[in-house]
Amino acid sequence: MTKITTKNLPHKPGCYLYKDKSGQVIYVGKAKDLQKRISQYFQKRELDPKTKLLVKNIADVEFITTNNEVEALLLEQSLIHQYQPKYNIDLRGDIRYAYIKVTDERFPRLITARKLDKHARFYGPYTEGSARRMILKTLGDIFKIRTCNQLPKKVCLQYHIGRCSGPCQGFITEADYLANIKNAERLLKGETRAIIADLSKRMTSASARQQYELAKSYRDQITAVKLIEERQKIDVPKNFDQDVLNWLIVGNKIYFQLFNIDKGVITSRHKFTFGYYPGVVEEFINQYYSINFIPREIIIPNKLEEQDLIVRYLQETKAKKFTMSYMPRVDLTVPQKGEKAELLNLVKDNLEITLGLEPGILDLRQNLGLAVMPKVIEFFDVSTLQGSYNVGAMIQMVSGRFNKNEYRKFKIRWKETQDDFAMMFEIVLRRYYRLVKEKKNFPEGTTECCFESFGRIKTRSQYMLLGEKGRGNLSTAQGKSIEAGSEAAGD
User: Fold this and answer.
1) Which of these, 30, 99, 189, 311, has the minimum number of CB atoms within 10 Å of its CB?
2) Using one digit for the tens of pLDDT, what is the confidence trace for 218-258?
3) What are the structural domains, with CATH classification, of the chain?
4) Is the pTM for the entire model greater than 0.85?
5) How far from 180 is each of 140, 165, 200, 202, CA to CA, in Å?
């Protein structure tokens, strides 16, 4: 077994792929916290024989972060189907997600099913059992759908408590019952606006006729429909495929990462690294899709130069590959918000983690106009209670991770009245003077900061400090850090 370093793995949900010496994927798993889950395999504790054999053959680990556990579940299933890892079969067996089935009967029922067949209609899959049960219960409450396996000879308790319309005794016509089933299916498809509009119209009409109990039932149905719209956790399949492409430029390198999405589910990921030069993104897209499948939509973070020309090229290439007699549709989408923008952020987070960066650190560098990547960031703040009990605090981040060993608290000694500038002056000077005095690690070179406006910083070192409460305090902090840095440098 090769020693796997888990310290730098992210505390995020996602999937992990264990590989053997030949690079073949031998196990795929999901995790709520990737670092904690992967670390469990390599702790000194008793493992079952099958897991011991797995750990013995692990040579490398790869991971993909997701936004939540539900996405991790779906991604795990896709990766297992893609790689067919042998240890997944031994350790986990086959996983089948549950669907809601509309039975093929005179008076249909809504039930849970894990196998699909041609004699019924299915909705799902549902990755959360609690959500699926809630949906079934809510649909039953709204549309009074029967739950009995066979129609009884007389109405049962469900009818008497108002949860069944009583088709067994003819208390509802077959046509009306099938209309309720149709509305239930419309809800499962997410077609809620028309249903809510219809129910609202009926509620208003019943209220005008002073049928307040009936109006109340319609109001409750509207509430339930809205609830099911919010809580439904179906992976609604899209009728087309997508690729999500994002990239990062670090130094003279550009790093690409591309997620393939098959009808709404992430199925695979690809990574590429090239030397950066103007036009490399356009060239990569043209070359990649000249030899790979071209989906209906490609999601990218920025609009490209000559984007219309690239779209035309992709359309013609796709038509030629599949000998189409018409020009197929291919979209290059640059989303600003919504689900597609979240997918782009997910790909970017995975890129940054792959490069050993905490997600968002590159955005921080760009937004603050920093010349180099901030490696160590220290944050200062002061607090007072109406001029008394004056205190200060400092926290530190190293490579995007909080370093609690370097957290510091300060009792303000030099000023008894409330003076934020003087207090910031004191804690910054004490912090860096002590580093100098005790000859501890100091920033590489002298920290040179320029606070152009409220909190905007430029620095030429990998060490950055942030103060609070506006330009005055920031300038004070900057001055004290330079004083301490100059002393450390022997100036």
Assistant:
1) 189
2) 788 788 777 655 544 334 445 568 899 999 888 788 899 99
3) 14-91 (3.40.1440.10), 98-231 (no CATH), 242-356 (3.30.420), 367-489 (3.30.420)
4) no
5) 10, 10, 16, 15
